[in-house]
Structures are given as structure tokens and as C-alpha cells.
């Protein structure tokens, strides 16, 4: 029976056909003599894309020859278990995925360099960040499935459990990923550094997409990033992970208004379709969908909760839900569908804060305007500007605050309501009154001084009025 060709036997055949010695092929390809010798002896059965490309050029192979050599290289790489059997399979995609056109285009562009693009040896690492409920995981999974053909060596997923009381340790993550990559338990190194070297060596040989969801911090992530190769890592985190270097960043904002309404319409189409046999089709008024979307702050999780509440309450019209959500005191209560609550998503972030940052988060809900300054934050915190700035930075790093300008911060509407609820639960009425009086006194002083400055050219601007 004929022996099936391998990369080693095909390379040796091609070298002999070209009349080259190992040294001659090394000189033409830029590889070392030793590297080519090990390839021909089968010690490296699945070389990476760069190596195959260099050999193809040196051997002057045509398109069919290059493809044949590349196919043998891919066949020689250890394959992970089939997706259905591996514990690192991608999770189920969300239904009714809507919008995010520009973000998907950006992800496609950012990952192209690591997927046999302009620099096939530079792995791409892209961080999706944003507040709880913004749809980071949904977008990452959707993008991964769209780009499946770019990664012939597969796609893997792991939840790093970054918001748990005990996030996964890097060593445990490396063990899980090595198992999913086909390494047997007894072959996994005990030493953490050696385990990391094993992991990176495998990733160098594969065009693989790795989705690491819900990262805790930089220390958890750093050992999991590849050094070279044709793969891509997608990270998601509520934290900005500012300390990571060499990472492309894609912060997520709420959906566009039109996409929010389209998501609700898509969910409610299921209800209309299910009821078509028992009654006439009743499309939802566009203005009512827009009103619900506005009251949900265009946050994907809130929109899905609102859509599912309507889906399971056929007697409600969209206007009925609008009337319920319009009550700010009860809005968060109505954004609950079974065991899914918008408040739970925010609470996970809130619990990550230090005591001083939690206190400031609560008290900022008292601000009457759409945004606020560092000076007003210091007044509410009853602390120095430096301390208030540190607390604001902590809130911003965890995506609980937006920074509108270099000097102005703002809450998402639903997070402001959550912070107000926590203020009522965790501080006494006397403490709340004291904070409110301190804030209004400062605002009145600022207004008075500003009035004197502009009307009478007297006094001077109060802090924060420059």
C-alpha cells in the first residue's frame, strides 16, 4: 500500500527535485539548517504559516504546490477535539442579534493581521470593554462565528469568571486550554512558567481564535496572550485593563436608537407570529418601540428583558410597558424577566468597588443634571479633590461612569437609578439629607459667584467655575 505523504516527506521530495542541499534550501529560505533538518525528520510536523510560505518561495512552487504543502502542514498539527465535545466550545449565540455594524467591521479589521493578513506572525488581541449589560459577550460570540472561516484550526471559548469572588487562576486557565488543545493530562507541565511556554508553543502553530470572556484584571490575562503566530484573542471585560500593552481596544456604547427599536421589533415579531392563528397581525407602533428603547437607555440587556416581558404578556401593549417604565422609582423593578434582572448586572460591578468608590457612586445619584465635575464629586464625597479623582477613576475603569469631556462625568440613566437605590438602602435619611444639603449649598455658591463674576466683575469664580 502506498504511504500517505507527510509534510516531512513532501519537503524532502521537493528539495531533491529542486537539486538543493539542506544548506542550500536554508540559504534561499532564510531558515536555519537545523530547522529544515528537523522538518524533514518529522520532528515539527505542522510548521506555522510563515515557515511554509518561506519554503514555498525558496522552492519556487506554483499555486497548487504551495497549497499542497500548506495542507500537509495543517494536517500535521494536533487538532483540538470536535467543538461539540470540547469544554471550550463557543457558547450559543444570542437570538435576534441586531446592529453593531461598525463594531463588527472594526473587529474584522483588527483581527485580520492575526489571521494570515499583512503580518501573519503577529497575533491580534482585541479587548471589548463596557458596562454590564452592554452586550460584550454577545458581540464577541457573533463576531467569532462570522469569522469562523478565517481560523481553520478552530475557535475556543473560556469564561474567566472575572466578577466572581474567586476568578479563575491563570494556571487553571492554562490547564483547561491545554486540554482543549489536545494535550494529555500527564503531559501538562506542573510549573506555571513551563505550562505557559507549552501553551504559547501550541498557539504559534495554529490559526486559532480564542475568546476569553469576562476577564478580571491584567494579571489574570497576561499569561494567556500568545507571543507569535497567526491566531487571534478576543477579550471581554467590564474593566478597561489599562495596564495591558499591545492590545487593540474597542469600547462599547449603547445601541443606536434605530437598532434598539429594531431589536425590540425582532423579539416582538415572535409574539405576533405565535398569535397569528388566533388573531390578526398587529405590528407595534414605531413610536412606542422608540419610547421603550429610550427608557431602557438603549442597553441591549435591558432591551431584551423588556422584549421578553412583552413576549410573555400577550395582554400588554407596548404602551402598557412604556407607562410602567416611565415611573423612575419602579423602572428597575420592571426590567426583570424571570431570573434575569438588570440590577444584578450592575450589582456585580458595584461589588468590585472599594468602600470609598461605592459611597461616591451612591451619592452621585443626587446630582440633578446630566453630568458633573470633579469638584462636585469631591463635595458629595466630603473629601479632597485627589481622593475624589481616585474614586472617579475607579468607577470609570470599571465602566460605571462615562467621561463626557476631560472634566465632566456622567452615569448611564439606568446606573444612576441603581446608584440611587443603593443610596436609599445603604445610607440613612440623615446622611442623605446631609449630602443633599452639602451639594445644593455648593451649587448655590457656585451660581452666586458666577453671577457676580459675569454681572459685576466682582469676586472670582468658585472652584469648578473657571
Walk me through this protein's architecture.
The protein starts with 6 loop residues before the first helix and ends in a 10-residue tail after the last helix. The protein has helices at residues 7-17, 22-29, 33-40, 49-58, 63-76, 101-111, 136-146, 170-180, 192-204, 218-221, 257-274, 286-295, 300-311, 318-325, 328-334, 342-350, 355-363, 374-381, 385-397, 413-426, 429-456, and strands at residues 124-129, 155-159, 209-213, 232-237, 248-251, 336-337, 340-341, 372-373, 402-403, 408-410. It is α/β, with parallel strands linked by helices. The protein contains 21 helices and ten strands.
Itemize the secondary structure elements and their pairings.
Layout: H1 7-17, H2 22-29, H3 33-40, H4 49-58, H5 63-76, H6 101-111, E1 124-129, H7 136-146, E2 155-159, H8 170-180, H9 192-204, E3 209-213, H10 218-221, E4 232-237, E5 248-251, H11 257-274, H12 286-295, H13 300-311, H14 318-325, H15 328-334, E6 336-337, E7 340-341, H16 342-350, H17 355-363, E8 372-373, H18 374-381, H19 385-397, E9 402-403, E10 408-410, H20 413-426, H21 429-456
Parallel strand pairs: 1-4, 1-5, 2-3, 3-4
Antiparallel strand pairs: 6-7, 8-10, 9-10
Helix pairs in contact: 2-3, 4-5, 8-9, 11-12, 11-13, 12-14, 17-19, 17-20, 18-19, 18-21
Amino acid at each position: 500500500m502506498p504511504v500517505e505523504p507527510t509534510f516531512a516527506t513532501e519537503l524532502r521530495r521537493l528539495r531533491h527535485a529542486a537539486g538543493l542541499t539542506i544548506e542550500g534550501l536554508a540559504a534561499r529560505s532564510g531558515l536555519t539548517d537545523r530547522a529544515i533538518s528537523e522538518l524533514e525528520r518529522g520532528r515539527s510536523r505542522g510548521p506555522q504559516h510563515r515557515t511554509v510560505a518561506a519554503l514555498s518561495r525558496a522552492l519556487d512552487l506554483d499555486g497548487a504546490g504551495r497549497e499542497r504543502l500548506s495542507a500537509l502542514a495543517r494536517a500535521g498539527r494536533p487538532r483540538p477535539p470536535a467543538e461539540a465535545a470540547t469544554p471550550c466550545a463557543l457558547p450559543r449565540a444570542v437570538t435576534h442579534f441586531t446592529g453593531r455594524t461598525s463594531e463588527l467591521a472594526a473587529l474584522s479589521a483588527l483581527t485580520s493581521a492575526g489571521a494570515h493578513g499583512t503580518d501573519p506572525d503577529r497575533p491580534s488581541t482585541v479587548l471589548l470593554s463596557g458596562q454590564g449589560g452592554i452586550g460584550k459577550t454577545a458581540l464577541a460570540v457573533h463576531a467569532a462565528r462570522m469569522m469562523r472561516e478565517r481560523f481553520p484550526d478552530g475557535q475556543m471559548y473560556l469564561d474567566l469568571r472575572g466578577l466572581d469572588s474567586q476568578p479563575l487562576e491563570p494556571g487553571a486557565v492554562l490547564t483547561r486550554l491545554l486540554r482543549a488543545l489536545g494535550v494529555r493530562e500527564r503531559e501538562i507541565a506542573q510549573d506555571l512558567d513551563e505550562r505557559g511556554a507549552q501553551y504559547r508553543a501550541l498557539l504559534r502553530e495554529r490559526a486559532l481564535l480564542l475568546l476569553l470572556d469576562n476577564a478580571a484584571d491584567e494579571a489574570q490575562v497576561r499569561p494567556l496572550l500568545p507571543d507569535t503566530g497567526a491566531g487571534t484573542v478576543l477579550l471581554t471585560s467590564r474593566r478597561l485593563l489599562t495596564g495591558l500593552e499591545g492590545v487593540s481596544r474597542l469600547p462599547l456604547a449603547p445601541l443606536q436608537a434605530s437598532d434598539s427599536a429594531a431589536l425590540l421589533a425582532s423579539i416582538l415579531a415572535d409574539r405576533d407570529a405565535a398569535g397569528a392563528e388566533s388573531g390578526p397581525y398587529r405590528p407595534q407602533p414605531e413610536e412606542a418601540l422608540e419610547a421603550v428603547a429610550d427608557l431602557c437607555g438603549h442597553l441591549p440587556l435591558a432591551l431584551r428583558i423588556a422584549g421578553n416581558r412583552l413576549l410573555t404578556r400577550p395582554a400588554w401593549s407596548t404602551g402598557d410597558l412604556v407607562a410602567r417604565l416611565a415611573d423612575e422609582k419602579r423602572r428597575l423593578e420592571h426590567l426583570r424577566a424571570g431570573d434575569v434582572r438588570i440590577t444584578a448586572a450592575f450589582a456585580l460591578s458595584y461589588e468590585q468597588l472599594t468602600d470609598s468608590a461605592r459611597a461616591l457612586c451612591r451619592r452621585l445619584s443626587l446630582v440633578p443634571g446630566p453630568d458633573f465635575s470633579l469638584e462636585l464629586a469631591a463635595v458629595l464625597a466630603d473629601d479632597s479633590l485627589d481622593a475624589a479623582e481616585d474614586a472617579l477613576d475607579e468607577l470609570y475603569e470599571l465602566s460605571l461612569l462615562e467621561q463626557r469631556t476631560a472634566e465632566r462625568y456622567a452615569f448611564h440613566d439606568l446606573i444612576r437609578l441603581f446608584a440611587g437605590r443603593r443610596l436609599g438602602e445603604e445610607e440613612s435619611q440623615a446622611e442623605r439629607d446631609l449630602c443633599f444639603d452639602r451639594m445644593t449649598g455648593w451649587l448655590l455658591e457656585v451660581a452666586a459667584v458666577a453671577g457676580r463674576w459675569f454681572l459685576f466683575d466682582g469676586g472670582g469664580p468658585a472652584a469648578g467655575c473657571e
